[in-house]
User: What shape does this take?
Amino acid sequence: MAISDVQATAEVQRTLVLILDLGGTFAFALSGAMAGIRRHLDVFGVLVLSFAAASFGGILRDLLIGAVPPAALIDWRYLAIAVAAGLIAFFWSSLIEKLRNPVGVLDAMGLAFFAVAGTEKALTFGLSPVMAALLGMLTGIGGGVARDVLLAEVPAVLRSDLYAVAALAGAAIVVGAACCIFRRL
Amino acid sequence: MAISDVQATAEVQRTLVLILDLGGTFAFALSGAMAGIRRHLDVFGVLVLSFAAASFGGILRDLLIGAVPPAALIDWRYLAIAVAAGLIAFFWSSLIEKLRNPVGVLDAMGLAFFAVAGTEKALTFGLSPVMAALLGMLTGIGGGVARDVLLAEVPAVLRSDLYAVAALAGAAIVVGAACCIFRRL
Amino acid sequence: MAISDVQATAEVQRTLVLILDLGGTFAFALSGAMAGIRRHLDVFGVLVLSFAAASFGGILRDLLIGAVPPAALIDWRYLAIAVAAGLIAFFWSSLIEKLRNPVGVLDAMGLAFFAVAGTEKALTFGLSPVMAALLGMLTGIGGGVARDVLLAEVPAVLRSDLYAVAALAGAAIVVGAACCIFRRL
Assistant: This one.
C-alpha cells in the first residue's frame, strides 16, 4: 500500500470517528435531556445533564487511551450539538415523548454510534482487538451511566439484559471488520 | 515583552492558580464535611468526603488537560488543607451552621475560586477561550457533584438555577479579562 | 548496586504489583458480583458490576499517575479474572453467602491487595511517600465506591469507621517498608 493510501485511510478513519461521535453525542444529549425533563429539572439542569450524558463516554475513552485534552473539550462542535439537543428536548419534549420509550430508543442509538466510534479510535491508538471492543463498550454505556448516576438512579445498563451485550456485539463486529480489512491490505 | 517579563507573568499566573486552588479546596472541603456531618457520618467518613469534595474538581481538570499527576496529589498542601477543613467542620460544626445555608454559601465560594483557577490553568495549557471557560465551569461544579453523588443525592447543580450559570459567568469573565491582557502585551 | 541488580529489583516490583493487582481484582469482582446478586440483577448486570468494582480503583490509579492506557485495559488477565469471578459468584452465590458478611470480607481482601499494589506502583512512578500512600488508599477504596455509586447507595467507606483507616494503614506500612529497603541498598 502506498504512503498516500495509508494517509487517505487514516483520514477516512478520523472522519468516520468524528461523524459517529457527533451522532452519538446528539442521541445521548437528547436522552440525558429527556431524563432531566422527566425529573422536572429547570433548563440549566437539563443542559448540564445533556452535556454530561453526551460527552462522558467519549471523554472517558480519550482519558483511557491517553488522548488528552479529550476531543469533546477541544472541538466546539461537541458542545454545540449537546446544547442544541438539550434546548430541542426542553422546548419540544412533547414531540420526542411520542416515541414509545424515548430514553431507551435514544440510548440505543447513542450506544450504536459510540460503541463503533470508541472501538475504531481505540484500534487507531494501538489497543489489542479484545480491549478495543471492551473500550468501545465502555464508551457506549458511559453516557447512560453518567446520566443515571447524576440522577441518583441505578444505571439502566445494570438493570436490562440487552444493553451491555448490544454494546459489546457492536464493538465486536467493528473489530472483526477492521481485522478483515487490515489483513487484506 | 522581554523574556524576563514573560517568565515573571508565568510565575504570577502559577501563584494565582495555586492561591485560588487552595482557597477553593478549603471552601469545598468545609462544604463536603458539613454535608457529611448532616448525614451523621463518623469522623473518617467526614474526612473522606471533605477530601473528595475538595479535590475532585481540580483532579478532573488536571486529568482532562493532561497535567498528571494532578496538583492535588503532588502538593501536600491540598491534602493538609482538606484534612484541616474537615476537622474544623467536625469539631466546630455549630459555628458553621450559624451561616444561613452553610453548604450553599461554601459551594458558592468554592465555585468562584475554582471556576477562575480552572479557566486560568486551561488557558495556560493552550485550550481555546470557550473550552477554557467550559473547563473552568467543570472544575467549579466538580466538587459539589462528587459530594452529592457519594451521598446518593441528585447534585445541587442539577437542581438549582443559578449554580452552573454562576460558574460559567465567572469563567467567561476570566477568559474575557485574560484575552484583554494578552492582547495589550 | 550493580545495574543487573537494579533491573532484577524492578522486575520483582513489577511482578509483585501484577500479582497483588490480580488478587485485588478477583476479590473486588466477587464483592461487586455479590452486591449485584443481592439487588437481583441479571447475569449481564452482575458481570458489568463485577468488572466495574474490580477495575475502577486500578484504572483511577493509572490515570492519576499518567500510566495510560491503564493496565486493566491492556492486559487481558484483568478482564478474564473479573468475568470468571462474576460467573463464579452468579452460579455459586450460595457458597459465598456462607461467609458471615461476604461483601465486607471480600472488600477487606481487595482493599489489602490494592492498597499495597497502588502504593508500590505510585512509588515506582516517582510520587512522594505521603502521596503514594494516599494514592494507595484511593486504589483500595475505589472499587467499593464504584460498586456502591452504581447501585445508588452511599459508599461503605463513608459509613464504616475502619475502612479508609485500614487502607491508609496498609499503604503507610508499604511506604515505610519501601523507604527502609531503598535506604539500605
